[in-house]
Design brief:
hpI Integrase, Chain A; two-stranded antiparallel ribbon; 10 helices; 8 strands; disordered N terminus
Length: about 250
């Protein structure tokens, strides 16, 4: 077999093997794409320990919890402005995301989603809003409805900058560095964990699909200028699953 023919055979074999390799890759990605309830509880305990010890800020604490409890993409959390949060009705609107170049863009699927803020986070969001207003006032900035909920000071010293795309990744890595016994975690894994534990807690796949904006009617809804109203039951199932694990953990202790 000459070189040219050998190359042709190799390409054909690669094409045949490709679907199999793709399937294995998908299986590897699916496996471990969600924390177990116990692994998540361990992370939440470490998060709380670091927060109480002053190793992470109120904003960083809230950023982690909001991304987890809402089940959104980190870019959508980064894109939140105060106009998207109504503490009078405990409503949160996800209508945009922040790109890697720190530009605002539509959410994936161009969706407009309204959620009820998880009860666990209402007071913390209010506390952070007040604290941020004070911090901004100190540098001569008024907190308006257009103000990003989450910002940081970059390495050049620029203040009130929209979050870097890997900001939450770095915070998670720093927590893991202090608590190496924790399971591996990255921001998108929080989203998978939310959906998986909600399912284990009793939520239907349809409700989870809607809560994660994975609806089959996505194409149609792009053209409908009304929000998808998300019920609280998916979040409640997620919380119920964690409560069961906490009870189990206390009984073991």
């Amino acid at each position: 077999m000459d070189y040219i023919e050998y190359n042709r055979v190799g390409k054909v074999l690669n094409m045949i093997a490709s679907p199999y390799h793709d399937q294995l890759k998908r299986q590897r990605q699916a496996k471990g794409e969600a924390l177990t309830a116990q692994e998540l509880l361990d992370w939440l305990e470490a998060l709380e320990e670091d927060y109480q010890a002053g190793k992470i800020t109120l904003m960083q604490h809230l950023l982690f919890l909001l991304t987890l409890h809402v089940g959104d993409r980190k870019s959508e959390t980064y894109g939140l402005q105060w106009r998207h949060i109504d503490l009078k009705t405990n409503s949160l609107f996800i209508i945009q995301s922040l790109s890697k170049s720190k530009q605002l863009k539509d959410t994936k699927g161009h969706k407009f989603t309204q959620l009820t803020i998880p009860e666990e986070l209402v007071s913390e969001i209010a506390e952070w809003k007040a604290q941020q207003a004070e911090e901004l006032a100190q540098i001569g900035i008024e907190q308006t409805s257009e103000q990003f909920v989450f910002t940081y000071t970059d390495f050049r010293g620029h203040m009130n900058v929209p979050l870097h795309s890997d900001y939450l990744n770095y915070r998670i890595k720093s927590i893991h560095h202090r608590h190496p016994e924790l399971a591996k975690l990255h921001p998108h894994k929080l989203r998978h964990t939310f959906g998986t534990l909600a399912r284990e807690g009793g939520a239907s796949l349809e409700d989870i699909s809607e809560a994660l904006t994975h609806s089959d009617l996505a194409t149609t809804k792009i053209y409908v200028n009304t929000p998808d109203i998300i019920s609280t039951k998916v979040h409640e199932m997620f919380v119920n699953r964690l409560k069961k694990e906490r009870t189990k953990k206390r009984q073991i202790r």
